Each structure stands twice: as structure tokens, then as C-alpha cells.
Amino acid sequence: MKKIVFMMITAITALVGSAQDRLYIEDFSIAPGETRTVSIMLNNETAYTAFQSDIYMPVGLTIEQEDGEYIFDLTNRKGRDHNIASQLQIDGAIRVMSYSPSIKAYSGNNGPLVTFQVSADNDFKGHATIWMKTILLITTAGVEIAFGDEECLVTIPNSALKGDVDDDGNVGIADVSLLIDYLLGSYFDIFNTENGDMDDDNNISIADVAILIDTLLRV
To answer: Is 53 within 8 Å of 179 (Cβ atoms)?
Structure first.
């Protein structure tokens, strides 16, 4: 694997970034065994030419690779000579950086800046968090700005986990009890009615309880 040497532009470091500017990954849903495109978003009032961030992936989710290299692609917000590179760190983080040798600015003021593919294991349970840490953005004036950590919540689509009425990422006897109590008229702060409609007839009834129990007995 070719070793990537990270060289950041010499800059003046600011303690924090402006409240209006943000580099982050939007929350998303992914089904077990699925691969989907995810974006690193840049909302900015300031003109930036480079960024660096460490991405920490949770158990059950991986970033796609090719020939041992993580695949990150810049969107059409890049300048003519913007480059992007990534490298695995000792602590397990994936460091991503992009820069322009001619100090060109990224275009626009909001939207996707980088895309990459995320794959979920077949037994992925959802309710995981992707962290972006050590976020640095460099302005076209050569000022390096540090931003706080960002977290991205990753869940399973409702349709992928029928029976999970308590939205904990698992289907079990607790969901059966909750479904029965719901039918008896109890109220709950968290109750996923879509997941409780086991037969997709747009109505929750004792038939859904029977299907859920049968599903658990067949697991």
C-alpha cells in the first residue's frame, strides 16, 4: 500500500471556527448488508481551500476500499487542482484531507463536498455513531481554523426491522409486551407504529402480535 504523506499548509491557528461554518456527515439510515453513498457536507460563509478530519467508524460499518485505499471523492464543489487523500491512523481513525496547491477555494456555500461508500454488516443492528474529530479548515487567507467534534447517527430503516416497536435496534420479547400493552390502551413516549404493523395493513391489531411472536419463534 502506497504510503500517503500528509502535508498541511503552514497557517495561523484559530481556537474555534465560526458558528455559521460546519463540516459534518448528515444522519442516515442503512439496512443490514446494504452499501450506500454518504456525503461529508460543508456549510460555509468563509472561503476555504483545504480541510482535514479524522473519521471514527462504529462496529458493523466500513468505508469501501479499492486496492487497500479508502475511496473518497470530491464533488463538483472542488477547484481545478483540489486533491483528496486518506490514511488509516494508529487509533483506528481514517484521516481524510483535501487541499489545493494553488489555494483555490471550494465553490458554493453549502452541500456535499466529499462522497464515499459505507457498507453495513449483515448483522448490523443500527443506532450507531460515526464521529468526525480533529476537524481543521484552512481559509484562502492561510488561516487554519479548528472546529468541534461532529457526530452522525446511523440507524436502520423502519422497514428493515419489523417488530422493533421500542426502536432499540433489536426485536425481542420486550417488543411483544410493548405491542400488547399498546393494544390495551397504554401510552408510550417511544412506540414505532410502522414497525408494529407486521402485516402492513395500516392497522395494529392482535394479528400483528401473533405474527411478531411467530417471527421470534422462527429465529
So the answer is: no
Q: Which three cell numbers stand for residue 153?
A: 447517527
Number of H helices, E strands in the chain: 3, 15
| Class of domain 158-218 as given by CATH | mainly alpha
Nearest to residue 46, comparing CAs of 16, 76, 10? 16
**Does residue 2 carry a pLDDT above 80?**
no
User: What's domain 12-155's architecture?
Assistant: Sandwich (2.60)
Integer angstrom CA distances of residue 215 from 161, 182, 195, 208, 210? 12, 19, 13, 10, 9
In the numeric block, the cell 446494504 is attached to: 34
Distance CA 148, CA 118 (A): 23
Q: What confidence tens digit (pLDDT) does each residue in 24-83 have?
A: 999 999 989 999 999 999 999 999 999 999 999 999 999 999 988 999 999 999 999 999
Grid coordinates representing 123 are 448483522
Enumerate the domain spans of the chain: 12-155, 158-218
pLDDT above 60 for 3: no
> How many Cα atoms within 13 Å fall on the side-chain side of residue 118?
28
Query: What's the predicted TM-score (pTM) here?
Result: 0.68
**Alpha helices (H) along the chain:** 173-183, 193-196, 206-218
